[in-house]
Amino acid sequence: MEPVRIPLPMRVLLVDDHTLFRRALASLLSSRPGIDIVAEAGDGLEALAKARQTRPHVILMDIGLPHCSGLEATRRIKAELPDTQIVILTMSADDGDLVAALQNGAIGYLLKNLEPYQLFDMLEGLRRGEAPLSGAVAARLLARFAAPAGVDRPAEADEQLTPREIEVLQQLVTGASNQQIADAL
Predict the structure, then answer these.
(1) Which spans in the chain are helix H?
(2) Do 87 and 110 meet the contact criterion of CB atoms below 8 Å apart?
(3) Cα 99 to the center of its chain, rounded Å
(4) CA distances (Å), 72 to each of 62, 76, 132, in order?
(5) Mean pLDDT per 10-residue run, the chain (185 residues)?
(6) By the 8 A CB rule, do 51 and 4 touch?
(7) Cα angle at 123 between 119 and 126, to 5 degrees?
(8) Which phi and psi (to 5°) does residue 34 adopt?
């Protein structure tokens, strides 16, 4: 399936139950040309309503939300708005959350310990159809898929990642930006 390309300006919905974090993120992203914060939501049900109302290109979604988790909200939003790209932005480095997020339709998984420039790089990559993953998340995925068969690795792992995809993950693990990865590969 061809990734959805995001036009300018990128219309973004922010979903986090911590108002101070959400507002600070909105301020940070609004300072960047080409990004338009169309709405904010404090829980999963509000996220669904705001997504229906504003039709964002991108949703930055936390996992631990009241009333409806970010994982469930992701599933529901993707069912109704399949072209909306949802990126999980969370403190949770749990592999189960990562897998559930991707299974529910998230295109990326970022940890909140990112530097602002890293978040901007990831969003620019998303605009080009790339899937944003934090370096630590990519490292765990690489370890899981590069492990010998039978060692905490799904049997079908060889069928899921191409050698080129493994090269990209290896670059992500080193902390390389999207541009650095493109230059290296």
Answers:
(1) 19-30, 44-54, 70-80, 95-103, 116-127, 135-146, 157-160, 163-173, 178-184
(2) yes
(3) 12
(4) 11, 6, 20
(5) 72 98 97 96 98 98 96 97 96 87 91 93 88 77 62 49 63 58 68
(6) no
(7) 140
(8) 90, 0
